[in-house]
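Reviewers asked in the last cycle whether our approach scales beyond single polypeptides. To address this, we selected a multi-component target totalling 957 residues and predicted its structure end to end. The input consisted of the following lines:
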Amino acid sequence: MNALPPASGCAPELATLERAPILRERGQREVFCGLTGIIWLHRKMQDAFFLVVGSRTCAHLLQSAAGVMIFAEPRFATAIMEERDLAGMVDAQDELDRVVTKLLARRPDIKTLFLVGSCPSEVIKLDLAKAAERLGTKYNPSVRILNYSGSGIETTFTQGEDACLASLVPEMPAGDPSGEKELLIVGSLPDIVEDQFMRLFDQIGIKRVGALPARQASDLPNLGPQTRYLLAQPFLAETAMALEGRGAQRLDALFPFGAEGTTAWLQAAAREFGIDEMHFNSVIAGPRERAKRAIEHSAAQLNGKRISFLPDSQLEVPLARFLNQELAMEPVEIGTPYLHRTHLARELELLPQSARLSEGQHVDRQLDRVREDKPDLTVCGLGLANPLEAEGFATKWAIELVFSPIHGFEQAGDLAELFARPLRRRDVLRV
Amino acid sequence: MQLSVWTYEGPPHVGAMRVATAMEGMHYLLHAPQGDTYADLLFTMIERRGKRPPVTYTTFEARDLGKDTAQLFQDAARDAAARFQPQAMMVGASCTAELIQDDPAGLSEAMDLPCPVIPLELPSYQRKENWGAAESFYQIVRTLADRKVKRAPREGRRPLVNLLGPTALGFRHRDDLVEIRKILDALGVDIHLEAPLGASPQGITQIGAADFNIVLYPEIGDEAARWLEREFGQPAVRTVPIGVSATRAFIAEVAELAEVDPTSALGDDSARMPWWSRSVDSNYLTGKRVFIFGDATHAVAAAKIAHEELGFKVCGLGCYNREFARDIRAAAKLYDVEPLITDDHMAVEDAIMAAQPELVLGTQMERHIAKRLGMPCAVISSPVHVQDFPARHSPQMGFEGANVIFDTWVHPLVMGLEEHLLTMFRDDFEFSDEAGPSHHAAHAPKKPQASAALQSAEPEAPAPTVAPVEAANDTIWTAEAERELKKIPFFVRGKARRNTENFAADQGRSEIDLDTLYDAKAHYAR
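The resulting structure, written as structure tokens, was:
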């Protein structure tokens, strides 16, 4: 590593300085497990049902994380393991057959059933792949039965979506491997955002575009060597490997947050598909300008403010880049549960050298650093937000960044507003 | 395996968290994988606590299994003891850690931690949240209570009492305590200890110095109270003061054990509920059918209030905690209903649909069910929701609690005088069905006023073109009967329709005419 330049060192010298090594931490993690992804995945795939095979804790987690936001009979449930299942008094596989039969009888609308592994089912080594295969044969072709693990011992929060999408990859039809190139958008997006992107790709001139996950899990897009894929979310490492295993090629790009990120993301596809640069620019000029205007509303509030991210969804790096690049915020610490160096390479290049990157978590030490850094805004989970507020720190709930539409041009202003609102509120309140 | 969508209770370690979080100077070391930290948000978001629950999660991962999870546990225990310097530490396992059998009790014993350790064995695959809270509190008391503590002679001092059972995330525990303190103050009884809420491990050591105990929440406090009865010979007050007569009985029971005069506490003139219930406007409450479901203590208390203090008719009664099923069975017998003991909310929904109550008293779960079924509802019990932690004082216990209950249960119903006005003026366009009762957003009708007025005028005109309407069970309504049905106030019309159709089906009538409608009315008349 280079020697430290003198304190008066000018900008060009600083730019050549290597970033401080990434802080890797191990300890208590204040994050959700991968099961939580079911809350948005089941809304996205309207013909799919998610059956967690787990404990009362799993059921309680889903209910607490989902809260009453979606009370109605949702398209997820938990098969709660009981003493008899563990003591070997009953065969867990038989029990699972019984529960699945009961469920499918009550919900004939289900076309895809995900058996979702949990910490306890992983620890007792309940073979859900075997169960999915057996039940799949029984219910073929009316219901497809897949499995993945959302357990906390293997997955952190958004990694549950990664595992779920990876389980769909082998099911995707091959299409025409020697045919025209096709574009695949990977990562669940709210329908309205997906539609906006589809319209833009159409106007740009890319006609063959699919999305994973598809709105109907029974209607998966093609996948093969003809596929070029764009990641819409930064947490899809396993899915990306599975896609590449079937010959698809990743288009390297910034993630589509803010005017710049969205432009770069769309442009990566346009270039790959040989779209004329002038035409591309003319298509995106309008929405890009609109995004910049919308972001401008929050600029004064956020300009120069210092922000720390506690690890949560793996969205931290691209969001820090957006806030720094387009709103001149100063990232103090960017914590992330897992840092995918390849997928995030372009994002990392754009981050200021001063930002401290941390991977993993030791929550007590991390909170000590927050208290020392005194950022203007701290992005953190629901368990930490009110305690930090009570200590005088402004916070932004990280989970809102996962549940709200934040991708693309039309949402860039909303994304900026999510960070500006807690600060504005503090300015407004006189109580 | 049990197929479950929503649960009334969390796992038992969440009950232990409610006890730990309620206390000062206590820390809970939980052997658990990442993700179990979700439980923190129950306290910081639902209850809006400004502090993290005092819980350290060891956070083991798949790669640690079979290697060093025990080491991880011990490191976490040492770190937590050093960082938080608790007066005592609870140690235990969540559901996953229970399976890997690291023996937190043995591990922590071997470590010689600088504070007393309370090992917890909470079988996650058999038990649930309330049981976990009760067991944790019992173990804390048993481990920490100094058995050499003796009660001072009664002469020349005021009686001393322990209040047992309030926890973090409890349904109105915070406000109930205020009311209980008021009563005890009026009686001249001093509170020695409130626990677990607000108690410290050091405070618990002296628990034996009180003359007697008051078990406010039996689901959580009774286990410990029974041990204290045996160990220190402390008798316990077990009447739960929810409702006017229960509050009076509670005061009498406390006064007797404390050997004081109950008159001052009984004469509390803030008890408005009896007069509110006797005033003429409450006449319309008579015989309203209520369905009650919750934890056993709150459900039993609600049934007694509904029956004796508001003149409702209990048409369903149940609880989700099997441990207290006996109390529900005994109460159900009093009101001549079938007790419903289940933790399956779908079974509760079926029971509510079958009972067709006019008011549902339940948990947040029943609130949603009632909303779907279009029934008025008030919440009487855990599981809690952010709305169950209001900013204002809103107790369930004591005379003020009874006042709160009167308002909370009666307001969702159509008000007495308003009910008559709606009947008298139902043909007036401003009282059309779309307007609804005034407190149900009447001023934001779903349809424009003009069309509402038109619709309410329509039934007056002869409608020979109206085709007979087919009922759910294949009986046919004549146009005339259908018009008559429309004249019945909207808030009972659905029930009248169902009753009439059931009656017709029972009688084997394939057509519902005016006579059938009025025969059914006579049949179901109370």
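Chain A touches chain B through 62 residues (CB under 8 Å). We regard this as preliminary and will revisit it once experimental data from Aim 1 are available.
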